[in-house]
Q: What sequence folds into this?
């Protein structure tokens, strides 16, 4: 299994470290050909406008859209969540527009620019996990096929739609790898089983 981590800008190395800890091969995605043969995609946190701009310039924008639309499992964290969304309410960003969520960017304002809290996440951890938010967005509204997995102070911070998992915080920064483990076990391996590429004795 190979998981591609978008490596234009932002926290991609930290995601590679998590994959290493979980004994999964990671591959930095910088150009379209890097997508070949990958089984899952991580869109990291960083600056969504900068990522979108470069992806448009090198063709990754359309290539990622079609890969995700073909049901390649994808996990977007923070800026990655912004990139997945269909709509941003407050500030214009070109997004991939693949996930049926409406998002507010830099949603917590100055006072709470960065903060940590704890909360359980449906399917991922019944025990509260540490969640680290850095100039984070939150989800204002989800469409029909989208399931809310976690809310903090009445705002949606984790959502799941088919092959897409979006998180407003940085699960790669706490040393607790439950979110990545869920992504690998339940979204990537499941997808492979559904499509018959894993044979079971
Ligand atoms: N504020 C960033 C953006 O809007 C996201 C911050 C992050 O990824 N930690 O793109």
A:
């Amino acid at each position: 299994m190979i998981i591609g981590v978008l490596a234009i800008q932002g926290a991609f190395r930290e995601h590679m470290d998590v994959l290493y800890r979980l004994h999964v091969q990671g591959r930095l995605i910088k150009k379209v050909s890097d997508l070949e043969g990958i089984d899952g995609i991580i869109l990291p946190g960083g600056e969504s406008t900068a990522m979108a701009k470069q992806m448009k310039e090198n063709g990754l924008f359309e290539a990622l859209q079609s890969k995700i639309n073909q049901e390649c499992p994808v996990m977007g964290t923070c800026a990655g969540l912004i990139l997945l969304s269909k709509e941003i309410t407050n500030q214009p960003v070109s997004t991939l527009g693949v996930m049926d969520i409406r998002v507010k960017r830099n949603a917590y304002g100055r006072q709470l620019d960065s903060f940590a809290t704890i909360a359980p996440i449906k399917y991922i951890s019944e025990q509260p996990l540490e969640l680290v938010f850095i100039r984070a967005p939150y989800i204002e509204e989800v469409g029909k096929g989208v399931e809310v997995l976690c809310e903090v102070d009445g705002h949606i911070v984790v959502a799941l739609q088919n092959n897409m998992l979006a998180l407003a915080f940085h699960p790669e920064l706490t040393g607790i790898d439950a979110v990545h483990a869920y992504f690998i076990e339940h979204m990537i391996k499941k997808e492979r089983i559904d499509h018959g590429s894993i044979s079971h004795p």
In short: Residues 197-201 have pLDDT under 50 and may be disordered. DSSP finds five helices and twelve strands in the chain. The chain has one domain: 2-194. The radius of gyration is 16 Å.
